[in-house]
Amino acid sequence: MNCPYEPYRIKVVEPITFTSREERCRLLHEAGFNLFQLPAESVAIDLLTDSGTSAMSDSQWAGLMLGDESYAGSKNFYHFEAAVRSLCGYRYVVPTHQGRAAEHVLFAAVVKPGMCVPNNMHFDTTRANIEHRDAEALDLVIKEAYDPHCELPFKGNMDVDRLEAIIERVGPDRVPLVLITITNNSGGGQPVSIANIRATSRLLKRYGIPLFFDACRFAENCFFIKEREPGYADVPVREIARSLFSLGDGCLMSAKKDGLVNIGGFLSVNDERWARAITNHLILVEGFPTYGGLAGRDLEALARGLEEVLDEDYLRFRISQVRYLGELLARGGVPILKPIGGHAVYINAREFLPHLQQHRFPAQALAVALYREYGIRGVEIGSVMFGTRDSPAEEAAYPELELVRLAIPRRVYTNSHLAYVAESVVDLFQHRDAIRGLVMTYGAPQLRHFTARFEEESSAVTQFHGAGVVTLPQ
C-alpha cells in the first residue's frame, strides 16, 4: 500500500519567491536562455536536478555537530567507511567531494588513450571524464531504451550481446572496465535488473574485465527490483543492494543523490593496486584519503544518509511521488517517457514540439518556455547536452532522445507543488505552437550545456501568457 502522505514532518521552511513574467523574460535574456545561469531565487519550483538538492533529516543535521575536522583520521571517516563497506562490501573506500571527482580519479588511474569504456548509458560528466583521457565512451543500453513509448520494466538494461561484440572487436586489453549506471539517468531514470547485471558480470569474468557501478541512484534502482523483478518482492532493499554490489568489482557514487546530502561522493574498489593509484591521485587533486575534499561533518551526514535512504517507507513514497507527477502529465495529454522513472519525469520534447527540428533545440526551447511562463526550472537532456559538432563545417550529430527532465529533489516538495507543476506543463502543452526555436551562439567543446548561450529565432518572443493554474481532468 502506498503511503497517502509524506512520511516525514517538516521542521524548517524556506520561503518561495514569486517573480513576474516580465522579470523572468529579462533574466532569460541576461542568461542567454540558459537555465543554469539563472539566479536560484528567481525560480519558484526548481526541478533542474535532484543532485545535492535533498532536504537532510534531523539526524543528519545533528550529525553535522559531531564533525571531527582533523586533517587525518577523522572519526567521521571511519563511520562513513563502515557504512559504505556494509552497503557495498568492497575492501577500499575513498571519499571525494562529489561524483565527477570520483570519475576523475578513477579514470585518471586506469583509463589510457585509445581505450573504450562501455556503459549502459553514460551521463554527461562521466562521458566527459572518459573523453578527457582520449578514450571512447560507448552506450550499449538495450534498443528499447530509445523508444519513449515502450514500457519494459527494466529499460536501463545493458545489451549483453552488443557488449560481447565490442569486447571481441577491440580486445579485452582496451576495455579497462565496464560501467552500469543505476538507474539509467540519460535514458529516463530507468532501472537495471539483477538478472541483467548477473549476465553482464558473468560475461566480464570470462574476459577478466572489472564491472563497476555508477551507483548514485542505487536505492531507487533496488526498490524497482523489489517491485518489478520476480523473486524479490519479499527481499529487503538492503539485501537487494548487497546482492547487486556483490556482482561487481567496485562502484563510484555521487552521494548528492541517494546519499541524501548536499555534497559528497566516493569510490569503493576491491583491487589493491587500483586503490593505491586512485589514492595517490586523490591526494593531488582532492585531499588526504580520510577526507577527500569533504569536511568531517559532511562525512557524518553522508554516513547517516546512506542508512536513511534504505528505509522502504521513504523509498515507496519517493517513487510514488515521481509517479504521481508523471501520471498527472500523462492524464493531461503531455507526451512523457514511459515507464515513469525513479527520480524524475522526462517530457518527450520532440512530440511536445513537433514543429521544431532538433537543430532548433526543442527541449531547450520547452524548458525556457516553462520557466518564462510559470517560474519552473527543468533541464534539457537532448541536443544541447549530447549533440556534437567539432567544427562549424562539420554536420551536427543529434541524440535519439530529446527530453526535458523534471528532477524531483528528495524530501523537498509536497504533492501540492507537483500538482502546480503538472497544471503548468499541461497548460503550456495546450499552447505549444507558440513556442519558438533557439539558435546557439556559444557552446564550449565539452559539457556545453552548463555555459552555452542562445538567442530565440528571429528574435521572436512567444506571445502566449501562461494562465498558471488549470483544472486537470479527473
TrEMBL record:
Q: Aromatic amino acid beta-eliminating lyase/threonine aldolase domain spans which residues?
A: 46-423
Q: Which cofactor does it need?
A: pyridoxal 5'-phosphate
Q: What is this protein called?
A: Tryptophanase
Pfam families xrefs: Beta_elim_lyase
Q: Name one GO molecular function term.
A: tryptophanase activity
Family indicated by similarity: Belongs to the beta-eliminating lyase family.
Enzyme class, broadest EC rank: lyase
Output the InterPro entries linked to this UniProt entry.
Answer: ArAA_b-elim_lyase/Thr_aldolase, Beta-eliminating_lyase, PyrdxlP-dep_Trfase, PyrdxlP-dep_Trfase_major, PyrdxlP-dep_Trfase_small
> What EC numbers are recorded for this enzyme?
4.1.99.1
Alphabetic keyword roster: Lyase, Pyridoxal phosphate
Q: What is the lineage of its organism?
A: Bacteria, Pseudomonadati, Nitrospirota, Nitrospiria, Nitrospirales
